[in-house]
Amino acid sequence: MGSLHKNKLTLYTSVSSQWAGVAHLGLAEKQYPKEDIEFKEIDLMAAENFHPQYRRINPAGTVPSLVIPSSPTPLTESRAILEYLDLNSPPPSLYPSSPSTVLATNTLIALIHSPSLDTTLLLLTARSSPELAAKKSSPFKTYITNRQRALEKFHAADPENHFYASKLTENTELYDVYSTDEDHSLFFEATHAKYHNFAAAIDLLDKEIRLPYAAGEEVTFADFHIAPWLAHALAGVGTTEHSDFEKLDAKIRETVPEFSGVGEKIKAWWERFGERECFKEVFERLH
């Protein structure tokens, strides 16, 4: 595929970002020449996504963002970025070809982005004092602390800014858990409840996947959202082998012993989509 852009697209990304994987898969699948893209790394560990300079590009402070020379407004959601990459590249399109496939695609994308399947559950939360102690000894504490310091700084500089006020309130709740030795039983109880929701949502995902691809016979946008989510979930529990679901199953069963495990349809889809060159390029290593 030849160069489609006189000026480079700029992708703000992060190796730590789950949803940046959607954009990277799209670029690889649609064979965008690397010389057409300028990649700018946002260090999430250092809370660079909260810096006012980056928020001028993405007011929500999320990653990824795509700056398009011909457009005054950056794209700041992974779905919009993937659709742009698809629309501005040669066929075949990732857009579903039938109303039923459109419905299946939209249902799957909504599910995978739902709070019930938020992978921060695996990374940042805890269900017991020993589990919390382990998290406190990990880089996650540095991550939460850096976010706290950055938000305090930017909120102090702009106290009327609702974004910084709300984000600071949200992060402070988690920061207090990580930085104090008080009774965190309510936090543990809430985490247990989220694991029940997580298990139920994985079961629902298995039911919704049609095979051979997520929405059926054709590759669609849905596949490009599910893959980064599952890669991030597996990596979040320490998995290094793509076909190893045991650690994720075991993590969930600590709270939901009746969980039957990641379903066979999800596994079959994962194996099938994992054969694509874009997947091999982006997820040679789970992250």
> Could you say which overall geometry the principal axes of the C-alpha atoms support?
globular
Query: What about the largest sheet?
Result: 3 strands, mixed
Q: Helices and strands: which structural class?
A: mainly alpha
Q: Got a strand count? A: 3
Average the pLDDT over all residues and give the rounded result.
96
Helix content range of the residues, please? 40-55%
Give Rg in angstroms: 20 Å
Output the number of helix runs: 13
**Percentage of residues in strands:** under 5%
Looking across the biggest beta sheet, what order are the strands in?
A: 2-1-3
Report on this model:
The protein is mainly alpha-helical and 287 residues long. It is 53% helix and 5% strand. It has 13 helices and three strands. The protein has helices at residues 20-29, 52-55, 78-87, 99-112, 120-124, 129-136, 139-157, 162-179, 185-208, 221-236, 246-253, 264-273, 277-282, and strands at residues 9-13, 37-41, 65-67. The chain has a three-stranded mixed sheet with strand order 2-1-3, with no helix packed on it. The relative contact order is 0.13.
Question: Keywords for this structure?
Answer:
287 residues; mainly alpha; 3-stranded mixed sheet; disordered N terminus
Which helices and strands occur, and which strands form pairs?
Layout: E1 9-13, H1 20-29, E2 37-41, H2 52-55, E3 65-67, H3 78-87, H4 99-112, H5 120-124, H6 129-136, H7 139-157, H8 162-179, H9 185-208, H10 221-236, H11 246-253, H12 264-273, H13 277-282
Parallel strand pairs: 1-2
Antiparallel strand pairs: 1-3
Helix pairs in contact: 1-3, 1-10, 4-10, 7-8
